[in-house]
Each structure stands twice: as C-alpha cells, then as structure tokens.
User: What shape does this take?
Amino acid sequence: MIKFLLGVADVQSSNAQVTQQDFTAFEKTMLEKTKDLQDIANSIQGDQISFLQDQISSFFTWAGIIITIAIAVITALSGFALQYIQRKSKEADAKKVEAAAKMDEATEKMHQAQISHEEAKDKISFLEKKQQELEELINSKALNDKINALEKSALLTDKLEKRAQSTVNIQTAKIILEDVIKEAKENEKFADLDPIIQDEIDKFNDECSALEFLLTQAMLQTNAAMQHPHLFNEEQVLGETKGVLSRALKLKKKAEDIWGNVIVPIIDRRKEKGE
Assistant: This one.
C-alpha cells in the first residue's frame, strides 16, 4: 500500500500534466485497491471474530467444567457439612436429653433435701421445746423435792443393803465357827498321841474363843445399828462383819491344816511303828 502511494507520487512528480483518461484509470485503480483493502480488512476482522468466538466458546466450556466441578465439590461439601451438622445435632439432642435427666435428678434431690431440711427443722423445734420443758422441770421445786426424796431413798436403801450384808456376814461366820468348833472337838480325841497335836489344838481353841468373842460383839453392834441407825456408821459396821467372816474362813482352813498336816502324819508314823 505504501509502495503504491509512493509510485503515485512519483508519477505525479514526473508528469506535471495528467489527462482525463489517465485520471479515470487512476481512479479505477484506486477503487480496486480500496476494495482489496476492504476485503483484507473484512478477512482480518472475520478471523478475529472467529478467534474471539473460539476463545469465548473455550472459556465457557472450561468455565462450565469448573463450575460443574465447583458445584460437585460444593455439593459434596454440603453433604458432608449436612451429615456433620446432623451428627452434631443428634449429639446435641442426646446431651440435651442427658442434661434434662440430670436436671430432673437434681430437682428431685433438691426436693428431697428441702423435705429433709423441713423435717430437721421440725425435729430441732421439737427438741428445743423438750429441752425447755426439761429445763423448766429441772428448775422446778417439785423436781427438787423428788430428787431429794430419791436421794434419801437411795441413801436409806444403801444403809439397808449394808445392814443386810452385815447380818449375812455374821450369820455365815457363826455357821463356820460352829463347824470349826465341832472339828476342834474331833481333833481333841487325838491330843494324847503327840504333844504337838495337843499344842496345835490349844492354840486353835484360843483362836476359836477370840473369834467367838468378836462374833458376839459384831452381832450386838449390828443389832444396835438397826435399832439406832443414827448412832452408827453402816460402812464401819459392815467392814467389821467382813473382818469377822474373813477370820472364820481362815480358822476353818487352819482346822483342815491341823488335821491334814499334823494329826494324819503322826497317825501314819505310829502305824508304821506298830504303835
């Protein structure tokens, strides 16, 4: 195109005067060249449009694929998300049920605790009332009189028990002494066998006489204490009767020892000698 215009310029510069025929030919040539240029431009424009249409079609094709994949991914993720949400919803429902059960249990325990609290308050009130009544009773003159009467009764009962025990001790010692005296009389039959036997029997009889004297004194004292309790100490009288009973038991043991350890061995020796 540039070369063509340069050629025209050269022709114009070389031929100052142009004829009508030459101008017509030139015009025709220009029209042909212009048409060729338009054809070339239309061809280029058509190629560009076709290229653009192919690019747009390819773009939409890939865009569709991408959108399809995106939709599939979104659908899959939505499915997973829905399953996750449903699972979490079920877990939340289970936890709600469990929480509700625990709440009911806690409510029941609170109710029971309230009942226990009310019962405890009632019991405390009852005990406080009884304590007040007891304090009033303790501070009352009637109770003091009853306590004094019970103390006197207990003191009297204790004295009577000690008197009774003193009487039992004396009677027991008296029975033991009578048995011991009988044994002593039996032992006197063997006094001639050996001076040792006679000596032991004499000592034993002296102890029996002393015990008999003490027993008589204790009996008199016990009878006097019963008749005049304000003049005697029951504890002292009881102690003396216990002492008499203890001596009676020792004396009985001594009588058995005299027979077993003194008289019997001497009899056995005399038998061995043939006496």
Summary: Residues 19-97 form one domain. Residues 90 and 96 are 10 Å apart (CA to CA). The chain is about 90% helix and 0% strand. The radius of gyration is 74 Å.
